[in-house]
Amino acid sequence: MFATQKQIEKIQNYDARHKKEGGWTMTEMIVTLLLVLIAMAGIGMIAKSALTNMKIGDTETEIATLRMQIKQLYKSSADYTGLDNTIAEKAGVIPDSMLKSNGIRNSWNGNVTLVPGNDPNTFLITLESIPQTACVKLATYQSGSWKEVSVNGSSLDQDSIVSEAAGQCAETNTLAFISD
């Protein structure tokens, strides 16, 4: 079968119309790809920040719960003598989110240790492996309500706790909270 003149013109017009539309140029593809990569990097940074803030919030809640539960457990005792992780775990005062197969752990999988303070009327909650991004926020958590807070073994002055915590926090940290 032969095509009519009208059919040939239709095909030529169709081809001409689609040649003008064309695809994306290489420059357009590269710019689009760069914009997508920048957007993904931004989303990644926001997600990382949100995860860190969520871990900080969880840890603050866990510390407050742990502190309250220990005080409740020892309210009829003269002091906190004998407090340790084993007793606290057996008494059920450890928040479930801190109980792991390898012991009592914080949100960054660092050890959590419970012991009586040097003064037997106090007890110590120690958190290990706290990253720098969370250190100052956790060290200043409920500032003034702890008998003492220390970062990496240095006791922080409650009157200037934020600047002192910022000065003591390193890449990885150990925080100790003393309560009475």
Strand order of the largest sheet: 3-4-7-5-6
Question: What is the fold named in CATH at topology level?
Answer: TcpA-like pilin
The Cα radius of gyration reads 30 Å
- How much helical structure, as a percent, in the residues? 40-55%
Return the CATH architecture.
2-Layer Sandwich
Distance between the termini: 100 Å
CATH class: Alpha Beta
Series of secondary-structure elements, N-terminal to C-terminal? HHHEEEEHEEHE
What is the overall number of helices? 5
Main beta sheet, described?
5 strands, antiparallel
Count structural domains: 1
Task: Write up what this structure looks like.
The chain is of the alpha+beta class and 180 residues long. The chain has one domain: TcpA-like pilin (2-Layer Sandwich). Helices cover 48% and strands 18% of the residues. It has five helices and seven strands; from the N terminus they run αααββββαββαβ. The strands form two sheets. Strands 3-4-7-5-6 form a five-stranded antiparallel beta sheet. Strands 1-2 form a two-stranded antiparallel ribbon. A hairpin with a 2-residue loop joins β5 and β6. The radius of gyration is 30 Å and the shape is elongated. The N and C termini lie far apart (100 Å). The mean pLDDT is 86.
